[in-house]
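Q: I'm writing up a methods section and want to include an example of the input and output format. Could you take the sequence below and give the corresponding predicted structure tokens, formatted cleanly so I can copy it straight into the document?
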Amino acid sequence: FNQRGSIIGALTSTYLLEKPRIIEHMDGERNYHVFYMLCKAPDDVREIGKLGSWETYEVLNRKEGGTVANLVSWDDDKEFADMHQALVELGFTPEQRAQLYRIFSIVMQLGNIQIEWNNSEDVSYIGNVDQLNLVSEMMMVESDQLTNAMTTTKLTVGTEMIERKLSHAQAKGAQKTLAMHIYLPA
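A: Here is the clean output for your methods example:
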């Protein structure tokens, strides 16, 4: 800044987003702080995403066989309040803030959809339909569309479109990929 308070220079920092962290993190680490912060948000904000305690979300507990870091120096309640106020000061409308919180919540809720495997029929299926319905409603899509996005693929053979069921591992991979794609535009 110059003597009159005008900006005369700036510096930017570039951060790379670790996409895989959205769905799995290393032992002793946490997922992105915003998820934990939302779980500590006021009731009206948590209601937007139907959020409970962070311990109930698979993407926040999914780690490589260890523990989730307990950050003594990090106050999720205060950090959420600061983030929320920053969004207000940046001019985000209440609707825009709610939409942003909804997107982050969808990622957490999506990770709690259980994809099961039926050996006798050789197909993946959704094990907790209530959770599927919750996420579908939040995403404003039909539940069968979300189910198909996670459990099937479409192949073009000649002029025909063939739908094929995914293996359990492929369906879990599709679920993780969907969560990453939802988070990135936010």
